[in-house]
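Supplementary notes for students who missed Thursday's class. We covered one full example, reproduced here. Read the sequence, then the structure, then the short commentary at the end.
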Amino acid sequence: MSGYPDIDRVENEDILESMFSETDDLELKRRIRRRQRDIREKRFAEYESQRQIRFQRDEDAVTARLRRAEEEKQRKMREFEEQSRLRREAAGTGDEALRQRHAAAEEEKQKKLDGYRRMGQIMSTAYNTGVSDLLRDKHKPGLEHGANRANLTAHDSGPSKAVTGFGGTSYGPKTASTPRQESLNQNALTRNPNTIKQKLLDWSKAQVDGYPNVNVTNFSTSWNDGLAFCALIHRFYPNAFDFNQLNPKNRRGNFTLAFEMAQKLADIDPLLDVEDMVSMKNPDWKSVFTYVQSFYRQFATQRQ
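Structure (token representation):
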């Protein structure tokens, strides 16, 4: 064995394997195998140590990235909350402002509901007992049972002369009213909704006759630009405003003028809403019918 280097100092497994092949000494062979095993275990330990170092380094890098991502998320959340707060303050959407808007919306809703209730009550009265108003001339003295008589339009359309407004402009019939005559006997005067509707339509047509851009043929589209309402109030208050200055395209202005003048001058409640009327091309005929009844009751009764 003196020709071989110290086996415990050999680090190369190839040299040890060559030595193992060249010797027949069993003891030496055992020492060579033991040294090879030691070399492998040392190499594995070094590899494992390096692997742990790499793993720790990678874990630290991942942890650092996660920490940075969490910090970035928190920063963006703070910025978002700050921007949201600034927007709420700028738009006046704080808690108090929000409560105030809710209260105002609730109050407006209650007003509309009250208006709808009044409309329902008025329409119920019109369909159930309104015939006594719309056909009141059946109770006039001098009218005998079964006698022929003129349409209510002839009675309720006012005086036969034209109404004079601003600048001497004349509106309405230029001569004596010549409404459609119809022969009705007392037995035909029943509480028929269609009869009531037609009578009120005839009365309305007679009041606005002669006004430019006004043609009443129904209770919906004929009123959708507001001019018919303006003509109706102007018929009885010709000096309240200059009808010739009204523009059919200014629907909002026409509705506002008519509803405000009717309430101010004739104490007629604004059963219709300006915004609702502006938003509808074809207004609800029942709502218009109900509102026009208020004009009829106010003005036709005064002319009895």
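Commentary. The longest strand covers residues 163-164. Strands lie at 163-164, 170-171. If anything here is unclear, bring it to office hours.
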